[in-house]
Amino acid sequence: MIDEKGILFILSGPSGVGKGTVRRELFEKANDLKYSISMTTREKRAGETEGIDYFYKSKEEFETLIEEKQLLEYAQFVNNYYGTPRKYVEDTLADGHDVFLEIEVQGAMQVKENFPEGVFIFLFPPSLEELKNRIVSRGTESKELVLQRLREARKEIEMMDAYNYVVVNDHVDSAVSKIQSIIQSEHCKRDRIAKQYKQLLEDEMK
Amino acid sequence: MIDEKGILFILSGPSGVGKGTVRRELFEKANDLKYSISMTTREKRAGETEGIDYFYKSKEEFETLIEEKQLLEYAQFVNNYYGTPRKYVEDTLADGHDVFLEIEVQGAMQVKENFPEGVFIFLFPPSLEELKNRIVSRGTESKELVLQRLREARKEIEMMDAYNYVVVNDHVDSAVSKIQSIIQSEHCKRDRIAKQYKQLLEDEMK
């Protein structure tokens, strides 16, 4: 009906809170949401496709893009860069699609700086006890690492103030339903759409 | 889980837009929403109950409440006062229930002044043509009155800027679903709940 731009949604929260599970469930239900495609300098693996799994770049290309502020956020892991290309996000939004980004807290803070008009959703653990259980049950971390991750989680929770919404991940279904509501209601925000609606009526009166 | 206060939601929009229909559908689906009970000076009719249909007051009592700013909004029709008592709304919110108010644009503007922390939803006609059809199809208005109502509607649409959300009433089901999303997402707003969540974790760490 009206020519509406898409919205960038950023889901983040402490490690162990269940961001990935919530994102996968959400994407099974919300089929008009586009997942943000990352850019990387790591080698393309068999079966992967440019522009679907990742955008593949050389180290030099990636560093030029960093300098040109063409990444909403980036980080380095095991000698490779990973990041969120601004151009893909902006083009997809301009086409009228929402973009969804699931990301660690540090990355989300970078996105906040580079794209403050995004809608930031903090996934909150039902309790610290439960967060600890989830980290432990992965089975991949030593006792020392679990404690370190918990300390980090507590620091990350302090960053909640930079977010627009807080969703408790007590049940995946309930968290997904809340995120769907946030997406739908953000599209009803008066400051996003009032101008276009008024225009619509004015055109009708001509 | 946390001790959350209710939220006051105000649904308004030009006459003929279908506020009443949307509100009735919403209440069939959202059973934990409390409808705001009005106060009136008109006589109690057979079958009506104090505190369910209305709060009944004498003209003198009502005017005292107006002076004491105990009404979020009020108006006079056919020599009787009708209004929204602040106390009922505040007590219900304090009990943790959301309150829902469906009201004309003039009244909503009064509520905005007296209770700016409410969440204001503007119900928008799919088109002026459709709004005209709806007013005409009521069959109760003369041609002159229809035109007058349309002129009023256009003025009322200008007041959209005072609202938080705009929902198009193209299909009742879709409008109701959007309002349900607004209600759910408002409860996830960080500024409403972050403090309590942080407190929760701090209590756990003691």
Automatic annotation (TrEMBL), chains A, B:
EC number of this enzyme: 2.7.4.8
Similarity comment: Belongs to the guanylate kinase family.
Residues where ATP binds: 13-20
Organism per entry: Virgibacillus salinus
GO cellular component, one term: cytosol
Enzyme class: transferase
HAMAP family: Guanylate_kinase
Primary location group: cytoplasm
Reactions that this protein is recorded to catalyse: GMP + ATP = GDP + ADP
Boundaries of every Guanylate kinase-like domain copy: 6-184
Name of the protein in its database record: Guanylate kinase
SUPFAM superfamilies listed in its UniProt record: P-loop containing nucleoside triphosphate hydrolases
UniProt xrefs under InterPro entries: GK/Ca_channel_bsu (IPR008145), Guanylate_kin-like_dom (IPR008144), Guanylate_kinase (IPR017665), Guanylate_kinase_CS (IPR020590), P-loop_NTPase (IPR027417)
Database matches in PANTHER family: GUANYLATE KINASE (PTHR23117:SF13), GUANYLATE KINASE-RELATED (PTHR23117)
GO molecular function: ATP binding; GMP kinase activity
Subcellular compartments: Cytoplasm
Function of the protein: Essential for recycling GMP and indirectly, cGMP.
CDD domains documented for this protein: GMPK (cd00071)
Keywords: ATP-binding, Cytoplasm, Kinase, Nucleotide-binding, Transferase
Xref: PROSITE patterns: GUANYLATE_KINASE_1, GUANYLATE_KINASE_2
